[in-house]
């Protein structure tokens, strides 16, 4: 998708997008919106360096050097794929090993994958966090929020996921995500540590395809058709979409069963 088509798809122009960021959002919120654009451009230009990305997107509120420093620290620099250890750089950004590469699944609660997507209603952006069991494709947790802060996104979604498994011990479960800050914050890691869940991250945004695919299915195949008019409607319609997905949608990867049916059969 071209950058212009991306802005058209979310119902705005490039100029209006930047004006909205300048006018209505804090710097952190603006950077979060900018990250969504960077992710979209990278799908078509996976090898484009950060300087060229800045030139293409041309955000008014952040200069070239600050853009490069910020997105380099977030893991968007062009890299040669290689094994690495969990590290913390000077910006406090934590990276975890990719624990799911080559992992052979044979049951539920071995790998959960997660991602955060956005949903636009009018001029307002909201955020939806999903957590899916990779083996059964069951959405075990989700949360809809007005903010990208960790306490409104990944933490409530993870707590819901843990509760959905009731008294099952999740010791050793791998929680895989991209490198978003909501997945390496101290508060989020306190929850995973308490449950003895192992954190896993992809080197790039392309190493979490199942979670990204889920975002598209829920948004485009369900929520957009339900057409929520406000935040409360989005909360209700997302919950409905998750229920329909879990209890009725057949999946070829699990024998054309729906996730609940597949888990019950197992």
From TrEMBL:
SUPFAM superfamilies (UniProt xref): Ribonuclease H-like
MF term (GO), any: nucleic acid binding
Classification via Pfam families: rve
GO biological process: one example: DNA integration
Domain Integrase catalytic residue range list: 103-266
Annotated protein name in UniProt: Integrase core domain protein
Organism: Arenibacter algicola
């Amino acid at each position: 998708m071209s950058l212009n088509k991306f802005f058209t798809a979310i119902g705005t122009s490039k100029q209006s997008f930047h004006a909205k960021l300048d006018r209505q959002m804090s710097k952190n919120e603006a950077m979060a919106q900018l990250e969504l654009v960077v992710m979209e451009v990278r799908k078509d230009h996976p090898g484009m360096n950060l300087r060229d990305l800045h030139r293409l997107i041309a955000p008014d509120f952040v200069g070239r050097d600050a853009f490069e420093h910020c997105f380099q620290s977030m893991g968007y620099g062009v890299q040669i794929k290689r094994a690495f250890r969990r590290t913390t750089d000077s910006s406090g950004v934590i990276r975890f090993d990719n624990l799911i590469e080559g992992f052979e699944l044979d049951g539920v609660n071995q790998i959960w994958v997660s991602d955060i997507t956005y949903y636009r209603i009018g001029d307002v952006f909201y955020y939806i966090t999903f957590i899916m069991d990779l083996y059964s494709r069951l959405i075990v947790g989700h949360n809809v929020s007005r903010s990208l802060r960790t306490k409104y996104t990944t933490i409530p979604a993870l707590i819901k996921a843990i509760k959905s498994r009731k008294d099952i011990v999740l010791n050793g479960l791998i929680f895989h995500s991209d490198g978003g800050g909501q997945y390496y914050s101290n508060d989020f890691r306190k929850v995973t540590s308490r449950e003895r869940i192992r954190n896993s991250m992809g080197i790039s945004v392309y190493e979490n395809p199942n979670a990204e695919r889920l975002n598209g299915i829920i948004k485009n195949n369900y929520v957009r058709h339900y057409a929520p008019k406000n935040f409360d409607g989005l909360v209700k319609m997302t919950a409905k979409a998750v229920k329909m997905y879990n209890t009725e949608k057949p999946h070829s990867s699990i024998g054309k069963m729906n996730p609940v049916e597949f888990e019950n059969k197992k």
